[in-house]
# Entry
Amino acid sequence: MTRLRERLDELYAIGGGPGANRAGYSPEEDAAHELAAGWLREAGFEVEVDEHGNLLGRLPGDEPGLPEVWTGSHLDTVPQGGRYDGALGVVAGIEALERLGRRRRTLAVVAFREEERGCVGSRARCTSDLPWAFVELHHEQGPRLEQADAPLGVVTGIVGYKRGVRELEGRAGHAGTTPMVGRSDALVAAAEEILRIRDVAASIEGAVATVGTLEVEPGGINVVPGRVRLVVDARAPDAERLTRLLDQLGLDEAGRTEPVAMSDTVRGALREAIEARGLPVVELASGAGHDAGVLAAAGVEAGMLFVRAGSGGVSHHPDESAADEDVALAVDVLTDALDRLASA
Ligand code: HGY
Ligand code: MN
Ligand code: MN
# Structure
């Protein structure tokens, strides 16, 4: 566990804090990929960087013609992100493959580029060769495993989502001389719209919607805002509720990502690996998007193993945490599940 922890710390230190700061395709994500590529070479894996910048380390199988089995995740982060989101899946994947060694099928660990702003790397990879199966270990990023007092969870499916831009127009003017009556303040309009977005999402069971960024123009402290650009992140657990949510939010359907089920084959391998350790199998849906969802939608047998989140489940935050013993167990179960799949 110490090497895994050390590697998570090395990745976390890139970008200088507070939190992890490795935006997609930034010099910081590049540095993380270089670090991971060194670990892959150290492990003796065949290293590939594809045309999209995705990093793979391959461990050839006895029957190289068979479709492969991959594990991994992403090394980019949100601003001031946590230590585990993405990085855990890549670092644990290296540990698992080193423990396994040669199996019937070729195994690979992958770090997909720019997962946080749209799974860019994994979507791009779906235009070329894909594995037969993909297993992503990921921090749960929520409180449910902690509430269930369970160290691990098998993901049943991944939420559908859409990110849409709203532009609100007002009339810029002098903050001191523009009368309150008759003002057209774009930021006040945005505030009202953000409250409406919150109320719409709260009215649909299981739906969520967030406005995480605001751009205010012209942006002077003594100027009535004339224009605001905001991005809505809208999600729902099934297609019908996603349609209803987008409709009521006034977002068009273009570019929506459908909710997707995880592979029964991979779920079975993860369940067997957990049961083999005498542990209860907790199954749960993911409210976060993941590269595994992109691969599942592309027809890969894709699945996810969640490790219990500490600190009340907080994620996309420097306080993101996971207990050593839970992470160690997760690596064991990931290794066992990959063994089952790579021997199939
Ligand atoms: O935003 C998400 O769902 C994921 O963390 N990219
Ligand atoms: Mn992630
Ligand atoms: Mn994330």
About this structure: The chain has two domains: 2-159+259-342, 160-249. The two ends are 28 Å apart (CA to CA). The CA atoms of residues 309 and 328 lie 14 Å apart. The chain is about 35% helix and 25% strand.
